[in-house]
TrEMBL record:
Alphabetical keyword list: Electron transport, Heme, Iron, Metal-binding, Transport
Pfam families listed in its UniProt record: Cytochrom_C
Protein name: Cytochrome C
A GO term for molecular function: heme binding
PANTHER family xref list: CBB3-TYPE CYTOCHROME C OXIDASE SUBUNIT FIXP (PTHR33751), CYTOCHROME C4 (PTHR33751:SF9)
Keyword S-adenosyl-L-methionine: no
């Protein structure tokens, strides 16, 4: 059996090359890649190793109260999407009087709050439960949601789903759409907006965003990008937005906000 000697130039350079490759892999896997994720703050070598290995952050998160907010606990069911009876709509309309200052008398906001007229009922139900549990942050909305029981939340969702949809036709596939809306960016693992938010397909629990105030859309995209907002199941929105630039965020928000304000149909 042949024995290799470090005096052999070929063997020596093979060992050196292997050492350099190993060091480079460690640098990329444990330092460079974790550092580019906006929702990750290195707290030592162990956290870096866990992140690189794909271990859930909660397994290695500190127990001193500084852990990031928890994600949604709402389980979406098809029953949430059913058309509610008229009595539920009536009760929801009464409860929604507390919402008119921000969301408008008919669910169309005159401020930068989201429009709720015609919103899918399961979307309102999910977000209200997230506010109620503190999974989504808002001083006003958390206080309002905690005062409601499950039946009342369903009634409010039924009322807003019943309201006339003051919006244009849904976005359809067209070459004039912004690239991220139409086809996304597969190389950055960004799915097209229309694959979930209506137009081509609507994923249960995904809000209708046609005609939303631009400032609201920009604020939410930035919150997902930074990790400040974390109530998206399995980090779906955070994973999409993390790779987007500020220009792309503005472009997508401008497109969807313009739809209802100008009546433009793409």
């Amino acid at each position: 059996m042949a024995l290799y000697s470090f005096r052999d130039p070929g063997f020596r350079w093979s060992v050196i090359a292997l050492a350099i490759l190993t060091a480079g892999s460690v640098l990329v896997g444990f330092v460079l890649l974790p550092s580019v994720h906006g929702d990750f703050s290195a707290r030592g070598l162990w956290d870096a190793i866990c992140r690189a290995a794909g271990v859930p952050a909660s397994w290695s998160a500190p127990k001193d109260g500084t852990a990031a907010p928890r994600e949604t606990l709402v389980v979406l069911e098809r029953s949430m999407t059913k058309v509610a009876p008229s009595d539920a709509v009536g009760r929801g309309g009464t409860l929604a009087l507390n919402c008119t200052m921000c969301h408008g008398a008919q669910g169309m906001s005159a401020s930068n709050a989201p429009n709720l007229a015609g919103q899918y009922p399961e979307v309102v139900i999910k977000q209200m439960h997230d506010y109620k549990s503190g999974r989504r942050s808002s001083t006003i909305m958390e206080a309002l949601a905690r005062a409601l029981n499950d039946d009342q939340i369903r009634d409010i969702a039924a009322y807003y789903a019943y309201l006339p949809k003051a919006r244009t036709a849904p976005t359809t596939y067209d070459e004039n759409l912004p690239a991220l809306v139409r086809v996304g960016d597969p190389l950055r693992n960004i799915a097209p907006c229309i694959s979930c938010h209506g137009g081509v397909d609507q994923k249960i629990g995904t809000p209708w965003i046609e005609g939303m105030p631009k400032a609201y859309l920009v604020a939410q995209l930035r919150a997902f990008k930074s990790g400040e907002r974390r109530n998206d199941a399995q980090a779906q929105m955070r994973n999409m937005v993390r790779g987007m630039t500020e220009q792309e965020i503005d472009e997508v928000a401008t497109f969807y906000a313009r739809k209802a304000s100008t009546g433009e149909n793409h």
